[in-house]
Amino acid sequence: MKIGIACYPTFGGSGVVATELGHELAIRGHDVHFISYALPSRLNLFAERVSYHEVTVPTYPLFNYPPYDLALATRIVDVALHEGLDIIHAHYALPHAISAHLAQEMLLPRRLAVVTTLHGTDVTIVGQDRSYLPITRFGIERSDAVTAVSEYLARVTREVFAPAKELDVVPNFVDPVRWKPDHGQRGATCFARGGERLLLHVSNFRPVKRVNDVVEIFDRIRREVPSRLLMIGDGPDRPAAEELCRTKGIAGLVHFLGNTPAVQEVMPAADLYVLTTDMESFGLSALEAQACGVPVLGYRAGGLPEVVENGTTGFLREVGDLAGLAADGIALLKDEKSWNEASRAARRRRSRFAADAIVGRYLEIYERVLADPAGGAGS
To answer: What's the whole-model pTM score?
Structure first.
């Protein structure tokens, strides 16, 4: 198959999932074409059967806001015609599914199938601004197939949009070859030394990630267990988190690395992964941490309970329960036996989200859509 993937190129989960999926599809012999306004953060341009097509947005004095959705639709048409795309996989309903549908119409009578994957913000943006509801529902219903990354997200999508469209739940996945423990390096990095333990957080530092909660939890833990905190990512709440560290006098124990593609090298070195999102549609970083044998501390919110087994691969508490999560973390770090049991359980957890099985489900959806000569849009 020749597959186009439209996604955001950022370090967020949707862009990572789209990129990893494209790599896996290419390994299985499919030609994959990424279409975005910048190079996706984890995209390997040297991989066979993988291509990148940049979307250039024109700027005119007439446009206060450059029309990215129109530029994307035009680029999809261009790639479809010159590369012979069979299908476009849109990650996010807005704007990617809308642009894909417009490209679909522009290409008629030539067919281009559209599969849309919902990652979460598709739904939450409607919660913040109901004016987006009609166009988001339109993008969902006009897609030939729609997937959601968790049962939680599928349920919320049905409640918010009541779409006349079946949803396939296809969770995110992890490559166990790349995401694995490194026992010789656990806690022994340039960041944690002299017996200190290492806590890790990775996100885009948006308000929903509650990064100040990560700092607060770490501050409680480090009072009982000598430790350091590594913060990977960037976003609007980073300055506030840095200021909180200075206010608490722990700036020397907290390292902000910004966006880095080397997460898989750092993850196995952590002793605990902290994810305090108050609405996580899946929690890909938590899955990657578990694959590396790192127990997770997080909130019992959204789809995270589908990823983390509370009391087994980590601990989940109600949103805002800083003291509870800190106590759970202290108990794990002070009891080597308990930590080892949680680490082993976390590694076993990855088998449920193995790349082979999940990518196979996407391929089944592609084949199902392409086998329908009339297309499934609007059905």
So the answer is: 0.90
